[in-house]
Amino acid sequence: VLPNSLHARDIAYQIHPYTNMRRHERNGPIVIERGSGIHVYDDQGREYIEGLAGLWSVAVGFGESRLVEAAARQMAKLPYYHTFTHKSNEPSIELAEKLATMTPDGLDHVFFTNSGSEANDTVVKLAWYYNNALGRPEKKKFIARNGGYHGITIASGSLTGLQVNQRGFDLPLPFVKHVTCPHHYRFAEAGESEEAFADRLAAELEATILAEGPETVAAFIGEPLMGAGGVLVPPRTYWEKVQAVCRRHDVLVVADEVINGFGRLGTLFACEHFGIQPDMLVVSKQITSSYQPLAAVVVSDAIYQAIADQSERLGTFGHGFTASGHPVATAVGLENLAIIEERGLVANAAKVGAHLQARLRAFADHPLVGEVRGVGLIAAVELVADKASKAKFDPPGKVGFRFFEKAHEHGLIIRAIQDSIAFCPPLIITEAQVDEMIDRFARTLEDIQAWIAAGMPA
Ligand code: PLP
Description:
The protein is α/β, with parallel strands linked by helices. The protein has helices at about 5-15, 20-25, 55, 65-75, 90-100, 115-135, 155-160, 165, 185, 195-210, 240-250, 270-275, 300-315, 325-340, 345-360, 400-410, 430-455, and strands at about 30-35, 40, 45-50, 105-115, 140-145, 175-180, 215-220, 250-255, 280-285, 295-300, 370-375, 380-385, 410-415, 415, 420-425. It has 2 domains: about 30-60 and about 345-455, Aspartate Aminotransferase, domain 1 (Alpha-Beta Complex), CATH 3.90.1150; about 65-340, 3-Layer(aba) Sandwich (Aspartate Aminotransferase, domain 2). The strands form 3 sheets. Strands 4-10-9-8-7-5-6 form a 7-stranded mixed beta sheet, sandwiched between helices. The chain has a 4-stranded mixed beta sheet with strand order 1-2-3-13. Strand 11 (about 370-375) and strand 12 form a beta hairpin. The structure holds pyridoxal-5'-phosphate. Pyridoxal-5'-phosphate (PLP) binds near residues 116, 117, 149 and 150. The site of pyridoxal-5'-phosphate has 15 residues, from helix 6.
């Protein structure tokens, strides 16, 4: 690391999220300088396929000039305004209308935030405020799943069901209860079918609601297809079963589509794919292709009407962010959604996604591969120490991290979630580009196999 280089200054001054800081001090960053389509380039001139679309988010690819121009136009006209106390701005109104129109029936009112974490905090507050409005202030608990990811703020980090986000932070707060992760490969009992597994999890949810007292449970939250927990696809009937349990006990259903939304699974929303009719839908990431920070909670009319009545009684709905409904972010969101529609990127995700899934499933017989899973343009390949027993590597994550680093040498950026290799490329990817991505993956896998055979030297 050269003195005064970007690398040295990064080490000296920047604290990185999700980073082993001492390791970072030793190895320094990969500084990404620019991007074009599905590719990004670092400051050493190396090219990578962005197999995770940044953080599951750059739907339209890098270097999309229409988004740059939409931002510049809005910056010139009105770079900022807020939406507090009856103020509004045109792009936020248009995007709210657009979201109400495109999301599942019955979701008609939009609250904007900057991030998915803030959106999920907003969900918690909306559910609490709603139950206060209905005169049942004790109905406040949330049920989430182990392995779920909903963000890292104190409330959303409590909904998250991953150790890494809770260890060391005194989370979760006690209003959240976690139930079993709907991942059949890891959590089904011996010989249990997908259907029986889904029945068992629905029964577990119902038992949890009854044990807590239905009068204390506000909502159930889940990602239709879990992303950051490992790209975990629930059994086909899981959602319809848990939804029926929630309805029986007047528990709101919240679909967190921060990763799934806007075409990732080959349907506009994953709710369509799994038959979910949520009371609240959370979106972010692909809403702007992450060219601007933006998230939104889209809520049912019933919730909206109750909180509107309550806010009249209390005088104000005391929640919101300086950048809620930011005109530049929402203008970029509108243009981005227009691109997704005009270029048929949802259909592309279905078509090219089928190709990606087929190409990856060809690795199912590989001795290191325990499971290949995914829907549309999101997938994971789980590497295991022993295929027959599904035993994990010891320690879990060591092989995945090595894979993650090796993949860089082959010009590929993926996410390693413990030892699962996750793919979530931009929605613009072509079949030929998927083939190139898979070739780079296969070359990395060969290296990893040789490294494991050599006893995993440091
Ligand atoms: N919900 C889901 C499903 C996510 O995947 C994420 C981020 O990856 C979040 C919420 C949190 O979003 P943010 O990182 O913008 O706070």
